[in-house]
Amino acid sequence: MEGLEQWKDQLEQLKSQLEPWKNQLEKCLHEAIEYLNQIPPVQLYAAIAVLLISTLLLLSIRLFKRAKSNTIILTGLSGSGKTVLFYQLRDGSVHQGTITSMEPNESTIVLNSDSNKKRKSKPVHIVDIPGHSRLRPKLDEFLPRAAGIVFVVDSLEFLPNCRLASEYLYDILTKASVVKKKIPVLICCNKNDKVTAHTKEFIRKQMEKEIDKLRASRSAISAADISNDFTLGVPEEPFTFSQCRNKVTVAESSGLTGELFCIQSQAQMHAHESDGGEKNLLGSSTEAPAILLSST
């Protein structure tokens, strides 16, 4: 009983201590209501609208940052070795040699390399898009969530396919979704383990020449082409990939021997940027995450 009485006394003391705060709060609320009553309704509604819009804007920015993609797209002509690279990246196998895909292959994997041993590896979503011309529209389904594009070229059979590969790459580089988001593009010269394979420098120069020709032939119809909203390069200057609005780099690989480029996860770069890391693509500042390369 004595304990109960003491508890009641303490409760009464606490109540008496809070009483001034209660009175002060009631006074503040009363003054606030009086002040709001003096504001014209139009101004009050406008202030509420601004507050709501600002809140929604901040929430949308936070949601957008969280929704950054970790998807890397493998694409290129049929037979360039995209799917072999996909399986090498996924599990280190060649999946019984030559493969022709009729549907996109997808897998979420963790990529490890000497370049990111000091940083915690994060998963990256790899999508292998079929190279057949009738199946290329599937690329448009994945571009909105792409953080990077790997355009695979057959270094061994490059010359017979140079124009077709350049046309396909031209279409990708002029897509509004690629240009506006500044999605980085890596031209991956595959099958470089073969003695007669062309070098990445040769492939780069030849593709730049072909794209330069395409610029001239397509400029006349660009105004009527609603699918390509952007043009490439600088007018009256020979085209080079350095003129593109997004970063374009060239590297070599071999899916069959395991001499692969190492694509560092776009999700890793997003996490690094969120922690205050520097945004870069092979040493260049950009809003898009990086694609890092190394030979193994």
Automatic annotation (TrEMBL):
The chain crosses the membrane at residues 44-64. Residues 4-31 form a coiled coil. The keyword GTP-binding applies. It comes from Gossypium barbadense (Sea Island cotton). GO terms for molecular function: GTP binding; GTPase activity. It comes from the Eukaryota. This is Signal recognition particle receptor subunit beta. SUPFAM superfamilies: P-loop containing nucleoside triphosphate hydrolases. Its main location: endoplasmic reticulum.
